[in-house]
Amino acid sequence: MDINEKRGDITPHHQDAFGDEEFAEVKQCGLLMVAETSSLGILSLPAAVAGLGLVPAIIVLLDLGILASYTGYVIGQLKWKYPHISSIADAGELVMGPFGRVLLFIGSILYLIFIMASHILTFTVAMNPITEHCTCSIVFGIVGIIVSFRFSLPRTMRNVSWLSVASFISIIAAVFVTMIAVGVQNPGTVVKAIAEPNLVTGFTAVASIVFSYASHNTFFNMISELRDPREFPKAFAMLQCIDICLYLVTGAVIYRYAGHKVFSPALGSAGPLMAKVAYGVALPTILIAGVIYGHVACKSIYLRIFAGTSRIYNRDWVAVGSWIGIGLSLWVIAWVIASSIPVFNSLLSLMSALFGSWFTYGLPAIFWFYMNKDKWLSSSRKIALTMLNLVCLCVGIILGSGSFNCANNA
Q: What pTM does this model have?
C-alpha cells in the first residue's frame, strides 16, 4: 500500500524531546520554519542574481524551490511511516544503521553550528554601519554571542516560536526598506538578463540559492513537537509559499535597481543612511533565526547525552546546568568559526556545499528510496517518482562536489 494511503490511519505520536510538556500548533511550527529559513539566505539572493543574470537566477530559484518543496514532503512521509524518528540522526540510523546515526548527527550539528556562525557574522556586519564605531568586530561578535545565548535558554520550541513573529516582520520590513531605498537612489541601473560568470562566481551564486532553502535537517525535530505530526504539510506549505515568493521578489527587485554593485548581505546596498535603518530593522531576525538553529543543536546534543535517563524530563540543577553548558559551548564555537571566515558569501557557500545540498536534496531522495524499496518500478507513478528522486540525488551530489572549491574560496 502506498505511503499516502496509509497516512490517514496513523495515530498522532507525541514525541516532545522533554516529555509531554508542551506541543506546538501548526501556525507556531510554520512561523518557526519561516523565521529560520527566511533570514540570512534571503540577504544573499540579490548578489546571487547578479552572479547568474536575471533570467537564469529566476529559473534556478523556482526549480530548486520546487525540488525543496518535494523533498520536505518526503521527510514528512518518513516521519509518518516511522513515528519514532525525531531527528535527522534517527533517520540516518534507520537507513544506514549505527554508522548512519553518528554520521548524520555529527553532520547536522556541524551544519547548525556553521549557521549560528553566519548569524554572528551578520550581526557584526550589521553593527558596523549602525554604530559607526571603530570597535573591533570581535567585540561585536561577543555581544552577539551573549544575546543569542540568552534567547536560547528556553528548552521547548513553544517558548521560542513566538519570537519568530518578530523575526518574520523584521526581515520583511528590512527587505522592503532596502528595495525602496535602491529604487529611489538607482532608478536607471543597467542589469544583465544573462550573465557570464566563471566557475567560482556561478557556483557561489547557486550555493547561495541552495542555502536559502536549506532548513530540512531541522524538520524532524519540529514535526516531533507538533500536537499532530500529520499537520506538518500545512506548516510546510506555508513556509514554501512565503519563501519562494519572497525570494523571487527580493532577488529580482534589489538586483534590478542595485545592479552588479549589489552588496551581500543585500541590506548594504541601500546606501549609508538607509543601510543603518535596514540593518537596525533586521536585527531581530539576525538574532532570532540563529537562536532557533542554536536551540535545535542544543536539544540534539542534550538528547544524545541523556537518552534513556530521567534527565531528559527533569528540571533539576544537573539538567538545567547541562542545557546551559551545551548552549554556551556551541555559541563560542560558532563565534570562532565566524571570526575565521569573515566573508559572508564565502561562509554561506561553504555551508551549502558541505551540508545544505545533502540535507535538502540528497538525503531526502535516499530516504524515499528506502521507504519504497522493491517498488521503484512497480507502476508508472513509481517510475516517475523514482526519476524525480534520482534528479534530487544528483543535485545533492553535484552541489556537494563543489565543497572543495568553496573551501578554497572561503
A: 0.83
